[in-house]
Amino acid sequence: MISPLVGHITLAVYALLLAVGGVIGFVRARSRPSLVAGLASAVAALVALYFSTLRSPFGFPLGMALALVLFVFFGYRYALRAHKFMPSGLMAVVSLIVVGVMGVVMDWSMRP
Q1: Distance CA 108, CA 112 (A)
Q2: Which residues contact 60 (CB under 8 A, 6 or more apart)?
Q3: How far apart are CA 89 and CA 8, in angstroms?
Q4: CA-based nearest residue to 17, from 54, 69, 70, 53
Q5: Single pTM value for the model
Q6: Euclidean distance between CA atoms 43 and 24, whole angstroms
Q7: For residues 104 and 2, is the Cβ–Cβ distance under 8 A?
Q8: For the chain, what is the domain count?
Q9: Is residue 109 a contact partner of residue 4, using CB atoms and an 8 Å limit?
Q10: Enclosing domain of residue 61
């Protein structure tokens, strides 16, 4: 059996990666859109974490939806940039892992 704590930790680490990625994008390329998108995505992951800690039925699904949207976004950017792995490819893989963890945690948390 998998504990919801695994989902909570996953969302917290994901939020941290998203925020750090946005800051790095801003520092290296002076990209304000990277900073705003990274921090907004991190806040969304933290909101999902908050709801999941309250055992709300919206917490893990929100985290999964965010990760799915970001997987599509980063996967698309990876495909456009001649398969340059960093940072789009890495974030696509991380987002896909988060989708999987959220799916497993939701499955276990909804069982009687």
Answers
A1: 9
A2: 4, 7, 48, 52, 102, 105, 106, 109
A3: 24
A4: 70
A5: 0.93
A6: 17
A7: yes
A8: 1
A9: yes
A10: 4-109
Tokens coding 109: 């948390």
Neighbours of 91 (CB within 10 A): 24
Q: Are 34 and 18 in contact (CB under 8 A)?
A: no
User: Per residue in 14-48, pLDDT tens?
Assistant: 999 999 999 999 999 999 999 999 999 999 999 99
Q: Angle 90-109/59-80 helices, nearest 10 degrees?
A: 160
Exposed e or buried b per residue across 8-26, where buried means at least 16 C-beta atoms within 10 angstroms of its C-beta: bebbeebbebbbebbeebb
Give the SS3 label for residue 6.
Answer: helix
Token pair belonging to 108: 């276990």
